[in-house]
Structure formats: C-alpha cells, structure tokens
Amino acid sequence: MRIELERRSRQSNLFAIVSPLLALALTVFFGGIMFALLGKDPVSALFSFFIEPLLEVWSLHELAVKAAPLILIGVGLSVCYRSNNWNIGAEGQFIAGAIVGSILPITFYEWTSPLLLPLMLVMGAIGGAAYAAIPALLKTRFNTNEILTSLMLVYIAQLLLDWLTRGIWKDPAGYNFPQSRSFVSEAVLPEILSSGRAHLGIIFALIAAVAVWFMMRYTLKGFQVVVLGQSERAGRFAGFSSRKMVWFSMMFSGALAGLAGISEVSGSIGHLQPTISPGYGFTAIIVAFLGRLNPLGIIASGFVLALTYLGGEGAQLSIGVSDKVTRVFQGLLLFFVLSCDTLILYKVRLVFDRARNTASKGA
Q1: In the Cβ-directed half-sphere of 131, how many Cα atoms lie within 13 Å?
Q2: 3-state secondary structure of 88
Q3: Which long-range contacts link 210-216 to residues 24+ away (Cβ below 8 Å)?
Q4: In 3-state terms, what secondary structure has residue 180?
Q5: Could you give the angle at which helices 242-264 and 220-230 cross, rounded to 10 degrees?
Q6: pLDDT tens for each residue of 38-90
Q7: What does the H/E/C string look like for 314-344?
Q8: Pick from 11, 131, 194, 359: CA 20 to 30 A from residue 260's CA?
C-alpha cells in the first residue's frame, strides 16, 4: 500500500477561501496541545498569546510596529512568487537596506537637513534592490538556483552588519557597546500618534500593499507577472521576457525589503546594531502564503504573524515559556497553510499494489 496525490480536475473556490482560516484554526488547536504538553493551561496560554496583546493601546502600537516590515516584505515576495521566482533571501535584503540607508546618518552624523530622512528611505530601497540583483544576475547569466543564492546571501549580510557595528561604525562614545551612533531626530521616522511607538512604516506598508494590488489587477506589468508565473512558454508567445521578469521581481521585492529595513532601524531602533531583525524576512514568506499571495490578504496575515511575535514576548513573561514557542507557532502555521493548499490541488489516494501481493502469496 502507498499514498499518492492525484490532481483534482476541478478546484474548490470555497475551500480556497476557507483554507487560510482552517490553517489558522489548526495552528491554534495544535498550539493548545503543545501548551498542555508543556504543563500549561491551554486556554489561559492561548489567551495570553493571542488575546491579551490586543487589550492595551500600547500593545496595539507594538503590533503595528511588528506588522509593518512583515507586510512590506510579504507584498514584495508575493510578486516574486507569482512570477515563479523564489526569493528566499528577503532577510538579507532587509539588512542590506538598513545598512545602505544608514550611511548618511552615521557618516554625516551632524547633518540635520529635512532631506535626510527621504534620502535614507530611497537609499534603503536601492540597497535592498541591489542586493536582490545578485541572485537575479546569477540566475539569468549562469542559470543558478535563486533559492540557494538568495538564502546564502542572508548570512553574508548578517556578518557584514555585525562587522560594521563592532568595527568602523561603532559609536566612539558608546562605552564599547556594539552599535552605531544614535540617529539625529531628523533621521528618525515620526510616530503616528503620541500614545505609542507606531511610526510611518505601517503607512508605507499599507500604501505598498494597495499599490501592488492595483498593479497586479489593472496593469500590463501585473498581467506579465501572472502569465509568466503560470506558463513561461505562454509568456514568450505573448512577447514577454522571462529574463526581464527575473530582474523586475527580484529587485522589486528587494526594494520593499530594503525599505522595511531602513524603516525598522529609523523608526523602531534609532541606530544600527548587530541584530536588527527577529527573522522578519523569513516570517514574511509565511505572511505571503497565508495571504494567498494577494497584497490585500497580506495586510491581514501580516498582523496575524505580528501577533505571534507580540504574543510570544508576552507569554514568556506571563506564563514562563521559551521564546522558541513563537517559532513553533509560525512553523505550524506554514505547515498547515501549505498542507491545505496542497489539498486544494490534489486529493489523497491509497493505492494497493495487488500484483506485488499476488506474487508474494505465490512465492
């Protein structure tokens, strides 16, 4: 007996809509089982993880702070994935954008022009796009797998950031702490409201999501993304270039990741340090798929995944669980999202090998 996946002749539109909600429900259910195995009350633990962070104004601001990079990166990745280009290195592009965007406030730390912040944001986006251009070049020139190259470049970016903040960019007045000079006020993203830390990064994320949704739905470029993603051969017949699409999708997603990086550093941290991300670039992959690769759906899924970060931090204090619980929840969510998506396209069949059974009986 073996298990086979048989492609469905027709896909259920209803299940395609319900699938993310089902994946989320399964994640919560098995998360409750995990808490029970850890010796915690599942109901109170899940309440601390998913509900408690929504009850205070300050925590809603923190939710927006954590959702902003997830939405920005996830929107860019959705364009990549729908074009059948698999950028797994958004974390590296996030860091590259933070580094390039921080050149001005660190190198020219006394400059306080109103142009400083806009230039930082532009340079951050350019830095992320340039870093994403490396796997694009390797794929179009040498047919290198972009999954491997983009992923390996993440570790180069992390080590570069560590070297800079412990070396040439270390604050000389920072008591030997591995961090850069603090940004001047003109280099800091302003807060939206005085009641918390939420800054303009969340506005950038929402604008990007709506703009990309419009591009994908109503423009020729969006049509090219969809056609080449579904069938490269059909795209060539239509006169679309798959090589140009590799460059466009990779650099576009890299630019949004870079913008997220400099927004995070400028709006939430205020300086560069060896670690500026808890893994936003990797978590945004889950955000993109949970949002069905739809920019508007990614807004909702971005807040859901941001809640896992915020709830995980709160659960460490309130019920005394490890910070790894957040990663477990995110991993469960990705597993169930992909599982449900697989069942949309395929049905499971049990196949009994009668010939083998007959031969074994005859022997």
Answers
A1: 39
A2: coil
A3: 210/295, 210/296, 212/75, 212/76, 212/78, 212/79, 212/295, 213/294, 213/295, 213/296, 216/79, 216/82, 216/295
A4: coil
A5: 110
A6: 888 888 888 888 888 888 888 899 999 999 999 999 999 999 999 999 999 99
A7: HHHHHCCCCCHHHHHHHHHHHHHHHHHHHHH
A8: 194
Match 């490890």 to its residue by tokens.
322
**pTM more than 0.85:** yes
Contact (Cβ atoms closer than 8 angstroms) between residue 114 and residue 108: no
> How far apart, in whole angstroms, are the C-alpha atoms of residue 205 and residue 211?
10
Number of H helices, E strands in the chain: 15, 2
Whose CA is closest to 73, among 4, 150, 149, 15? Answer: 150
Amino acid 83 reads S
What is the enclosing helix (H) or strand (E) of 135? Answer: helix 116-142
CA distance 211 to 220: 14
- Residue indicated by tokens 């941290």: 269
- What's the angle, vertex CA 287, arms to CA 56 and CA 214, rounded to 5? 100
Cα–Cα separations (whole angstroms), residue 262 to 86, 112, 128: 23, 17, 10
Distance CA 57, CA 94 (A): 28
pLDDT in tens, 109-122: 989 999 999 999 99
The residue type at 97: G
Tokens of 213: 């949704």
Summarize the chain as % helix, strand, coil (round to 5).
Answer: 70, 5, 25
352 CB-contact burial (10 Å; exposed 0-12 / middle 13-18 / buried 19+): exposed
For residues 204 and 218, give the distance between their C-alpha atoms in angstroms, rounded to a whole number: 21
